[in-house]
Amino acid sequence: MTPMVDLFLLLLTFFILTATFRPDEAAQVDTPTTSSEIIAPKLNVFTIYVSKDNKAFFNIDNGPDSTSHVRSKLLKNMGDYFRVPFTPEEVKKFEGLASFGMPVKDVRLWINAESGQREQLQTGIPMDSLDNQLAMWIHFARLNNPEAEVTIKGDAESDYKVVKKVMDMVQDKKIDRFNLTSTLEKVEVKPQNTK
Fold first, then answer.
1. Helix (H) or strand (E) holding 97
2. What is the spatial distance between Cα 141 and Cα 174, in angstroms, rounded to a whole number?
3. How many other CB atoms are found less than 10 A from the CB of residue 185?
4. Pairing between strand 183-184 and 178-180?
5. CB contact set of 181 (below 8 Å; sequence gap of 6+)
6. What is the DSSP letter of 115?
């Protein structure tokens, strides 16, 4: 019995030390319900969030394996395009962070902020016609990982026009297949309802 307890504690210690916790999303999005049972991918995906106050947020993982460093390449591309310099330490730290939503000029502040202060910097990615930074995040994300699937996760209370605008941006970048994330709601079909 004693070796079994030792083995259990050893395994428990191993799982606690090697587990990685999923960071919080930039905005809490309460998705609409649907009866579709298609499951969106969890790896090799980039996600665009639309919050209930119609602000856009973005997240991308590091590709099919972490050696691709998709997030660091994406940040370097955005920094070069918008002339915002990022140090190698900031680029490395960005790889491990969660979804974000702020103008590119504020990304350095967000990276270097304490975890409690990061939420206050989340003001949404600009996506108006004169300063469409969200379109550039989509563009460079697609260039750095052309195999990634795209997911749009809009809040049930967000304005449809904003979600449609995001969908149009995705399609303008020649991405015709994307997932709209929703919450599964089981629909029970009874014989009297099938007529």
1. none
2. 13
3. 10
4. unpaired
5. 31, 40, 47, 151, 152, 153, 154
6. H
User: Residue 154: which of 181, 172, 135 has the closest Cα?
Assistant: 181
How many Å apart are CA 127 and CA 195, to the nearest integer?
A: 46
- For residue 102, give both structure tokens: 């702020």
**77 forms bridges with which residues in the sheet?**
none
Burial classification of residue 97, based on how many CB atoms lie within 10 Å of its CB (0-12 exposed, 13-18 middle, 19 or more buried): middle
User: CB count, 10 Å around CB of 169?
Assistant: 21
With beta carbons less than 8 A apart as the criterion, state whether 63 and 145 touch: yes
Which residue from 173, 127, 169, 139 is spatially nearest to 152, judged by alpha carbons?
A: 169
pLDDT by 10-residue block (mean), the chain, 195 residues: 84 80 58 57 83 91 79 94 95 90 94 87 90 94 90 86 91 84 55 56
Helix residue spans in the chain (DSSP H): 2-18, 70-82, 88-95, 107-112, 115-118, 133-144, 160-172
pTM of the entire predicted model: 0.74
Instruction: Say what the pLDDT of residue 184 is.
Output: 47
Task: Say which amino acid occupies 100.
Answer: F
Task: Give the integer Cα–Cα distance in Å for 42 and 36.
Answer: 17
Domain boundaries, the chain: 26-193
**Rounded distance, CA 182 to CA 195, Å?**
28
Q: Note the pLDDT of residue 45.
A: 87
